[in-house]
Amino acid sequence: MGPTTEEAVALLHGVPVFETLGDADLLRIAQVAVPRSFQAGDVIFREGDASDTCYVVGDGHARAIREHPDGRTITLAHFGPGDIFGELAIFDDERRSATVEALDDLRVIGITGPDFRRLLSEHPELSAKIVISLGRRLREANERLSRQSFQTVQSRVATVLAELVADAQREGARERDVLVTVTQADIAQLAGSSRESASRFLAVLERAGVIAQGRGRITVHDPEALGGYVY
Question: Exposed (0-12), middle (13-18) or buried (19+): which is 217, by Cβ within 10 Å?
């Protein structure tokens, strides 16, 4: 069951790209938005697909990945409630640059390119917001590359975990015993390390009581302790 119009408006209020819009404009978006639901492992769209729809996450989490011809995948980003993804496709005719899949039960609302472009023509300030949003992602990608060049594997993995914890806390998680939905492979890819190296360090953190590992999830008991491994 998809969100009601009122729920969709409340969700859009929390998206930085739309923060300058009033209730009347958000209501217009919500009325044309398409709600969709996915289960863990479902693909929202694949790399190479043709589509001009962007998505806003209501509940749950998703990740963007790129696939190598030899079968390996690289995790590019994680998305949670209030995040927007797929927005590049509304500006040009290029095919999807990555695959996005659900990590757990996921609810999103889709906004088509024509509806989005109409909003841009009526509200030019939205263009600046989108540029800021895309610039933030580019900056995060650059910071990740810098970490991979200059930090140790331990430092990179601890930093990735700390970022995931911060995301969860923005969604309402408490200060300690924070549950994040992520696999060892995801952490290794985000940290730019091998899975074996990431796994060894995660085992160190588990023995130290900083984290507890489960299938596709990690509970960070002591988020502050992660800072001691970042240098």
Answer: middle
